[in-house]
């Protein structure tokens, strides 16, 4: 579904991404793991067109490198960005309407989608007239995901959905992702919580210094000593547990 | 006293229109159009020209003139709104979203070009645009209204109210607020961000052009009148809070009132009091009375 080849992203003199190649197949959950500054967010911003990037990005076998972000969204790529970035001065309902911006000429379809995501996240229905800035972190994350889904994407990208959330809320979010996948959604997931990401993902890429240093099936990576050392708390933590 | 309040609210509602224009471009692009003043002046002259052409072609009578004036207002708003697009493309787009203040010079420069072109067309002199409902003064008890004051207030308040509702209730208003808050997130919704920015410039320029036609019958129209009006509109936006459209409107009315009430006592002190007020408000609330700090994400 998504195929990235030799992608480079630079911010001025700083090269944030150095020749990254990766694939996401239809129906897969693919995780990107790595430390702060490893280039995970730059990769996502390059894929969605929020930053200029060189290299090739194919989506459903068509090159999208020259397209603007809204054009990529129209093709079926949606992202719930890092830190949620909901529109904090608008209501939950208005945020969802904005998510359905590209379908605004079909109001019934937008309303049907909103109803669907209220079913997926009943908390959002309860708070539909509430200003998004007053929601809890978990509710904002649900809103960010629902808002991204409003454009009826075939690829959902999530940038650190667990950021700043209590473990129980994170678990809830991850259960929702699993459910979305079983409904046929393809998901590209960036996470610092490597353990949980690898538990849900089919495959994963490990980024370091703006490049892919390791890739493979999620199960294999979970057992890989290098990953355990660097991202899963290491052997010491494992023995302690 | 009441008389002065009416006069103050009249000019204040015009400042509020200009301030709203500053708010629109600031929130969506983080830039300001310092050519607003020239859009006001040139808007007034486009209005004068429209009235002149229509009167020459169709002859003048009192009833017809009301329509000519209305058409002149529409023409000025349209012409200035359309000129807002090249302003955006030439003076803002290359610089918006980038650090630096190149847009300050580029918008001032655009204004100077516009003013110079208008000067070569219409000359230096001040002219009077006749008010659409004549110079009559309506008396309600002690207070006399000039008809144009009512026209200005009615139209300005209708537009301000309409904007306020549109920003809250319409899809375009939601998009504008989304772009104002977070451009990247707005782009991820599929919103065409540059288009929204261009629209903001179109709307703010149209507001300036319309303001020109509104004030021309009150102040005499010259190609230099816009600068001080826009400066007060800018002050209104600053004290009300650049980020808050309602604050901008309130700031406009406040400045109009202060100016007009000071004039009761001493006409020379008007501008002094207005800008003292600006300094005072900023000393107490650096983001204006109703503003908040916008953090620019890089």
Key traits:
heterodimer, A: 241 residues, alpha/beta, Rossmann fold, 6-stranded mixed beta sheet, 4-stranded antiparallel beta sheet, 11 helices, 41% helix, disordered C terminus, B: 298 residues, mainly alpha, ABC transporter involved in vitamin B12 uptake, BtuC, two-stranded antiparallel ribbon, 3% strand
Explain this structure to me?
The complex is a heterodimer of chains A (241) and B (298). By secondary structure, chain A is α/β, with parallel strands linked by helices. Chain A has a single domain, classed as P-loop containing nucleotide triphosphate hydrolases (Rossmann fold, 3-Layer(aba) Sandwich), CATH 3.40.50. Chain A is 41% helix and 26% strand. Chain A contains 11 helices and 10 strands. Chain A has a 6-stranded mixed sheet with strand order 6-7-8-3-9-10, sandwiched between helices. A 4-stranded antiparallel sheet of chain A has the order 2-1-4-5. In chain A, helix 3 runs parallel beside helix 6 (137-149). The termini of chain A are far apart. Residues 235-241 of chain A have low confidence and may be disordered. Chain B has a single domain (2-284), classed as ABC transporter involved in vitamin B12 uptake, BtuC, CATH 1.10.3470. Chain B has 11 helices and 2 strands; from the N terminus they run H-H-H-H-E-E-H-H-H-H-H-H-H. The radius of gyration of chain B is 19 Å and the shape is globular. Classes of the chains: A alpha/beta (241), B mainly alpha (298). Chains A and B meet through helix 2 and helix 3 of A and helix 6 and helix 7 of B.
Overall tally of domains of chain B? 1
Percent strand of chain B equals: under 5%
Total count of strands of chain B? 2
**Assembly annotation:** heterodimer
Beta-sheet strand percentage of chain A? 25-35%
Our Rg estimate of chain B from Cα atoms comes to 19 Å
Count the strands of chain A? 10
Average per-residue pLDDT of chain A, rounded, comes to 91
């Amino acid at each position: 579904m998504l195929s990235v080849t030799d992608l480079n992203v630079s911010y001025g003199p700083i090269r944030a991404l150095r020749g990254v190649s990766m694939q996401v197949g239809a129906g897969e959950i693919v995780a990107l793991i790595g430390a702060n500054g490893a280039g995970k967010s730059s990769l996502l911003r390059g894929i969605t067109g929020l930053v200029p990037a060189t290299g090739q990005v194919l989506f459903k076998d068509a090159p999208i490198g020259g397209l603007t972000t809204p054009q990529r969204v129209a093709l079926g790529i949606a992202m719930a960005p890092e830190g949620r970035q909901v529109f904090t001065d608008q209501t939950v309902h208005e945020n969802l309407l904005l998510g359905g911006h590209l379908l605004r000429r079909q109001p019934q379809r937008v309303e049907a989608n909103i109803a669907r995501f209220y079913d997926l996240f009943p908390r959002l229905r309860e708070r539909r007239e509430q200003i998004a800035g007053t929601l809890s972190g978990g509710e904002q994350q649900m809103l960010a995901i629902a808002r991204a889904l409003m454009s009826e994407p075939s690829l959902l990208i999530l940038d650190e959905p667990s950021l700043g959330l209590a473990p129980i809320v994170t678990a809830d979010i991850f259960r929702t992702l699993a459910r979305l996948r079983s409904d046929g959604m393809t998901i590209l997931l960036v996470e610092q919580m490597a353990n949980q990401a690898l538990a849900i993902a089919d495959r994963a890429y490990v980024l370091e210094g703006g490049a892919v240093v390791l890739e493979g099936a999620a199960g294999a990576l979970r057992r890989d000593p290098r990953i355990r050392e660097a991202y899963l708390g290491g052997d010491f933590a494992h023995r302690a547990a | 006293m009441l008389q002065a309040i009416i006069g103050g609210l009249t000019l204040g509602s015009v400042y509020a229109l200009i301030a709203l224009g500053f708010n629109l471009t600031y929130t969506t692009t983080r830039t300001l159009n310092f050519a607003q003043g020239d859009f006001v002046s040139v808007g007034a002259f486009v209005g004068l020209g429209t009235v002149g052409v229509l009167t020459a072609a169709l002859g003048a009578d009192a009833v017809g003139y009301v329509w000519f004036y209305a058409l002149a207002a529409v023409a000025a708003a349209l012409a200035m709104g359309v000129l807002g697009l090249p302003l955006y493309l030439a003076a803002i787009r290359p610089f918006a979203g980038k650090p630096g203040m190149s847009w300050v010079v580029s918008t001032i420069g655009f204004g100077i070009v516009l003013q110079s072109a208008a000067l070569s067309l219409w000359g230096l002199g001040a002219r009077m645009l006749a008010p659409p409902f004549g110079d009559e003064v309506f008396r309600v008890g002690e207070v006399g209204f000039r008809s144009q004051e009512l026209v200005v207030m009615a139209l300005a308040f209708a537009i301000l109210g309409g904007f306020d509702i549109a920003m809250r209730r319409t899809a375009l208003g939601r998009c504008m607020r989304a772009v104002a808050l977070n451009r990247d997130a707005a782009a991820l919704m599929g919103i065409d961000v540059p288009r929204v920015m261009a629209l903001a410039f179109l709307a703010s320029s149209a507001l300036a052009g319309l303001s020109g036609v509104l004030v021309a019958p009150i102040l005499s129209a010259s190609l230099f009148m816009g600068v001080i009006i826009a400066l007060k509109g800018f002050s209104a936006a600053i004290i009300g809070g650049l980020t808050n459209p309602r604050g901008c409107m309130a700031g406009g009315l406040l400045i109009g009132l202060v100016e007009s009430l000071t004039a009761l006592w001493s006409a020379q002190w008007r501008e002094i009091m207005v800008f003292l007020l600006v300094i005072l408000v900023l000393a107490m609330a650096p983001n204006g009375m109703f503003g908040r700090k916008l953090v620019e994400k890089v």
